[in-house]
Amino acid sequence: MADFRVCEGPDRLLSDHLHLFTPELNRKPLLDLACGDGHNGIFLARKGFPVIFADRSGEGLEQVQRRADAENVAVTLWQIDLEAGSADPFSGQTFSAIIVFRYLHRPLIPAIRKALMQGGVLIYETFTQHQARLGKPKNPDHLLKPGELFTWFQDWEVMYTYEGIVGEPPKAIAQLVCRKP
């Protein structure tokens, strides 16, 4: 589920891998999937990348628009329930990068793999099953099994992967940064 907390800057996984967002990635829009308050996509839009913010919450997308207006960046908003309807909500669309934070809907993985252009970057971070012992979320449908995230993209150029406990309060997460061959 998307997290609507207010955050001033990007998540560390994104800022640590900003060097992967080269000018070639400007050929197609970037997708901030289940964007929440949009802080990660806004960060990329400030860097000059065209970003599409996708989320089911109209309220969340209004917050993204307010942030974008305040920071004088152009954004494209896409209100969509990613868990309803088509297994491929991106049909016919191609993105140069897809970023996903604190969201998991397993049926979307094939669509994410298909929608990313060749050479495109995927940055994905979400909770693992161990999180249920630490706090919310607890629903197993929203928690990764050990090694699951890596397994989905192991045939891509994996540049970074991590699975474990971070932060205070502690959170159990899996992180992946990869490029589609």
Give a nutshell description of this structure:
With 181 residues, the protein is an alpha/beta fold.
Gross morphology is: globular
Contiguous low-pLDDT stretches (5 residues minimum) are 1-7
Q: Any idea what the CATH architecture is? A: 3-Layer(aba) Sandwich
| Major sheet description | 7 strands, mixed
Task: Determine the CATH topology.
Answer: Rossmann fold
C-alpha Rg, in Å?
Answer: 15 Å
What does this structure look like?
The protein has six helices and seven strands. With 181 residues, the protein is an alpha/beta fold. It has one domain (12-179): Vaccinia Virus protein VP39 (Rossmann fold), CATH 3.40.50. Helix 2 (39-46) links the parallel strand 1 and strand 2 (51-55).
Q: Any descriptors?
A:
single chain; 181 residues; alpha/beta; Rossmann fold; seven-stranded mixed sheet; disordered N terminus
